[in-house]
Design a protein that fits this description.
The complex is a heterodimer of chains A (257) and B (192). Chain A is an alpha+beta fold. Chain A contains 6 helices and 8 strands, in the order H-H-H-H-H-H-E-E-E-E-E-E-E-E. Chain A folds into 3 domains: 51 residues, no CATH class; 61 residues; 105 residues, Immunoglobulin-like. An 8-stranded antiparallel sheet of chain A has the order 5-4-7-8-1-2-3-6, covered by helices on one side. In chain A, a hairpin with a 6-residue loop joins strand 4 and strand 5. The longest helix of chain A is centred in the middle third of the chain and has 29 residues. Chain B is mainly alpha-helical. Chain B folds into 2 domains: 116 residues, RNA polymerase sigma factor, region 2, helix turn helix motif (Rna Polymerase Sigma Factor, Chain: A, Orthogonal Bundle); 74 residues, Orthogonal Bundle (Arc Repressor Mutant, subunit A). Chain B contains 9 helices and no strands. Classes of the chains: A alpha+beta (257), B mainly alpha (192).
């Protein structure tokens, strides 16, 4: 890539109008610490900051007081909500779950006391209850993610090895995420796809490993990532099955949040 | 415009914010919130949405100050980029909402719904200062910068709107920013 081309990428990156593919290329340069890219971006961002500084406007005083309150409230807790828009949304789930749990426990309790011919059946019922409970829990997470306005929808675009692949991540910092991908080639023997969350200039954090079916579709339910406040991008690479602590293989999907 | 003196103060402040110093945050806010808010208002005309975005941006400052990397740029630039990104995200979500819930509409209608009537004197003043700088760019370069930075269009969208090749749009963005840098530093702009 020549100097003008890097300059063009940096200009568009600073302005915010970079198309997904170019953005991926430029961020790869930045992550690699390319001096040309870093200094061009620094210059252009500084220029735009100076431009913005030419037209200050006093903000409404309520914003600062709300922020200071929010900071004071955040002191003990890790991550309080901005405003409690719909705080009691979870209330019904514990009831349903405890019902399922009670059913499971009752099935077990009765199973022990009744003749052993029923033991197997009751055991199966208990397993069903356990299974339903787990399913409810995962659906509860899905619903919480879908209903929360803080959930981000991140589109991932196919990279060089699979340009037509695409994926969506519904990401919520404290509830986790739902990731679906399509158009990926089947992973070779001994390999799997690994999803990464990239926050700022930190090293990518693994968000899990997944495989795709014959139609190239795969999905992953992602747990919240401890210590990662804001994810700037998600990426998928091909790695040895089981995944690695840091990406090593080719990048198949990339999307910025 | 930012001066070297203000820059070193904000750098020191951001270190203290990273350590959880609320007074430093308060001072940082007082110094830079007007710049961030001016920019957000330029992108989002709805004052309530703008105030909301401003709060999110400074909350991000509080949370992410430990990640600030001085090698990547000044605290002012760090903040302005966050303000711009958040404001553009909000603008796009307003556009999506309008397209989804208000029935298919023309882009100009979508814009007008984001821009309620407001005090024309404020807008005129706000624009004149930025306009003074932008007016020193050749018109095609100025258009590309405005459409990207203030209207949140991607380069492909700009190319489609202007009926120009994508490569031309990319070159104009770079040349425009290079020239703007000279203008804002008060250098004489040489015709290269």
């Amino acid at each position: 890539m020549n100097r003008d081309e890097i300059g063009e990428l940096a200009a568009a990156y600073a302005l915010g109008g970079l198309d997904a593919e170019d953005r991926g290329r430029f961020e790869t340069l930045l992550r690699a610490g390319d001096p040309e890219a870093v200094s061009a971006l620094r210059e252009f961002e500084g220029t735009l900051a100076d431009l913005a500084a030419a037209a200050p406007e006093p903000p409404p005083p309520a914003v600062k007081s709300a922020l200071m309150e929010r900071i004071a409230a955040a002191e003990p807790a890790v991550r309080p909500p901005v405003r409690s828009l719909s705080r009691p949304r979870r209330a019904i789930w514990p009831v349903v779950l405890s019902g399922a749990m009670a059913a499971g426990l009752a099935a077990i309790a009765v199973g022990w006391s009744v003749s052993s011919t029923y033991e197997k059946r009751l055991d199966a019922l208990a397993r069903d209850a356990e299974h339903l409970k787990a399913e409810l829990r995962s659906q509860q997470t899905v619903i919480a993610i879908l209903r929360d306005p803080a959930t981000q929808l991140v589109a991932l675009a196919g990279q060089a090895p699979a340009p037509t692949a695409r994926a969506r991540m519904m990401w919520h910092a404290t509830a986790g995420g739902i990731f679906v991908a399509a158009g990926l080639p089947a992973a070779p023997e001994g390999k799997a796809y690994q999803l990464w969350a990239i926050a700022g200039t930190n090293a990518p954090v693994s968000a899990g490993v997944f495989s795709v079916d014959a139609s190239g579709t795969g999905s992953l339910s992602v747990q919240p990532l401890p210590g990662v406040a804001t994810v700037n991008a998600f990426a998928v690479t091909l790695e040895p099955a089981g995944g690695l602590p840091a990406p090593s293989g080719a990048m198949y999907l990339l999307g910025k949040s | 415009m930012s001066s070297a003196g203000a820059g070193s103060e904000t750098s020191a402040l951001i270190e203290r914010i990273a350590a959880g110093d609320r007074d430093a945050f308060s001072r940082f806010y007082d110094l830079l919130a007007p710049i961030a808010f001016g920019l957000i208002r330029r992108v989002l005309r709805d004052p309530e949405a703008a105030a909301d975005v401003l709060q999110e941006v400074f909350w991000q400052v509080w949370r992410e100050a430990p990640q600030y990397d001085a090698r990547r740029g000044s605290p002012e630039a760090w903040l302005v980029m966050r303000a711009k990104t958040r404001a553009i995200d909000r603008l796009r979500s307003i556009r999506r909402r309008d397209r989804t819930f208000v029935a298919p509409m023309d882009e100009s209608v979508a814009r007008s719904s984001e821009e309620p009537a407001e005090n024309p004197a404020v807008v005129a003043e706000d624009r004149s200062l930025i306009q003074t700088a932008l007016a020193q760019l050749p018109e095609p370069q100025r258009r590309v910068i405005e459409l990207a930075f203030f209207d949140g269009l991607t380069q492909s969208e700009i190319a489609a709107r202007l009926g120009e090749p994508l490569g031309t749009v990319k070159t104009r963005a770079r040349l425009g920013l290079e020239r703007l840098r000279g203008v804002l530093r008060g250098e004489r702009v040489s015709a290269r």
